[in-house]
Write a structure and sequence with these properties.
16 helices, about 400 residues, Aspartate Aminotransferase, domain 1, alpha/beta, 2 domains, Aspartate Aminotransferase, domain 2
């Protein structure tokens, strides 16, 4: 088994800020302060008997870095304790985490129910990839609990959702949807990227599995890719362990080390970015060039009461619709001087995305319209710049829209 499945360490009872700095740390005989980076593919054994015991799972040491690695184990353990999970496994990318968490437990003849509002690549996995392997899928309006109930079949094994959703920031009722899933004998997988583990804990709300693109806030500085799957010991042991060992969606030790260091400042960065996002949302709400603004921390958010119930804070992201459609949105995007055009998010630098032509461009226009992704919609990921500079930059760009 992975080193991430060890019993909970003594740091597990500390508050999140302390766990983000100390959980999972292993020190070599040199007593290093910063966690060591173990760049090794394989390991050697003292005896042939020890080697045999490792492969049988009778000796707890390492075998091969595709399976586990000391640096990877530290990253996994820190994420496990932060999330309050029993176990977890890291992956090469966020989409590797989603695909593995969804696909590994399933077989031909199973059925998946998922919310329509999700990242384009996630929707591809559910809508296009799974059916190729005989796994049926049904997409529902994630905000409509009756649609979740009606979609359940005798062979439904998995529910999947994002909350807040990408890119329109709808907030889904994780607890209620988890209850529906469990009544039907299914598990609920939640993509928690937009909320981050700082502001939302899906496992405590009833979810069975949580996935992250660690590329986003966890790294948070545009350096490397990574993903994380968190859940019960049984889920990891029965579904993930052998699947990952044989198929190899593993993270590199170097990326795991970068992400491990990123976790040390996750709380500081997310709190600062969220505070700025809230101020920016308020500053943009009445701008004459904006026809719609959505931010989970505002009282006018469509699910404001649910936000207060299941989230500890808002978001680092703001969504808004620019008048004038695609042309108006493009004029505003091209006029920005600080926030940069990108398809990424959760970075220390403010980034803006036009979902209709990037992250959700593969969807038919009708599907985008159904999700509220208009030609004028822009997703803003707020960084660590001074909020007044960002507001001034956004205002001057919108004036040109």
């Amino acid at each position: 088994m992975s080193e991430s499945t060890k019993p909970v360490s003594p740091t597990a009872h500390y508050r999140p800020e302390t766990r983000l700095v100390h959980s999972g740390t292993l020190r070599s005989e040199f007593g290093e302060t910063s966690e060591a980076l173990f760049l090794t593919q394989g390991y050697v054994y003292d005896t042939a008997e020890q080697c045999e015991a490792r492969f049988k799972g009778e000796d707890p040491g390492y075998i091969y870095s595709r399976y586990s690695n000391p640096t990877i184990g530290m990253f996994e353990r820190r994420m496990i304790e932060l999330e309050g999970a029993e176990a977890g496994r890291s992956t090469a990318t966020g989409m590797a985490a989603v695909t593995t968490a969804v696909l590994a437990p399933l077989k031909a003849g199973d059925h998946v129910v998922a919310a329509k509002a999700m990242f384009g690549s996630c929707r591809y996995v559910i809508e296009d990839l799974l059916p190729r392997y005989g796994i049926a899928s049904t997409l529902v309006d994630g905000l409509d609990l009756d649609q979740w109930r009606k979609a359940v079949r005798p062979n439904t094994k998995t529910f999947f959702l994002e909350s807040p959703t990408n890119p329109t920031l709808d907030v889904l009722d994780i607890g209620a949807i988890a209850e529906i899933a469990h009544q039907g004998g299914a598990r609920l997988i939640v993509d928690n990227v937009f909320a981050t583990p700082i502001w939302q804990s899906p496992l405590t709300l009833g979810a069975d599995v949580v996935v992250y693109s660690a590329t986003k806030h966890i790294d948070g500085q545009g350096r490397c890719l990574g993903g994380m799957i968190l859940g019960t010991e049984a889920f990891v042991a029965e579904h993930l362990h052998n699947f990952m060992r044989q198929t190899g969606p593993s993270i590199s030790p170097f990326n795991a080390w970068v992400l491990l260091k990123g976790l040390e400042t996750l709380g500081v960065r997310v709190r600062a970015q969220t505070e700025s996002a809230a101020v920016i949302a308020d500053a943009l709400a009445q701008h004459p060039k904006i026809s719609r603004l959505v931010y989970p921390g505002r009282a006018d958010h469509p699910q404001a009461a649910l936000v207060k119930k299941q989230m500890r804070g808002g978001s680092t992201l703001v969504g808004f619709e620019v008048k004038g459609g695609k042309a108006g949105a493009f004029r505003a995007l091209n006029a920005l001087k600080i926030a940069r055009i990108s398809n990424n998010l959760g970075d220390a630098k403010s980034l803006v995305t036009h979902p209709a032509t990037t992250t959700h461009q593969r969807l038919a226009p009708e599907a985008r319209a159904e999700l509220g992704i208009s030609e004028g919609f822009i997703r803003l990921s707020v960084g660590l710049e001074h909020r007044d500079d960002l507001i001034e930059d956004l205002h001057q760009a919108l004036d040109k829209a």
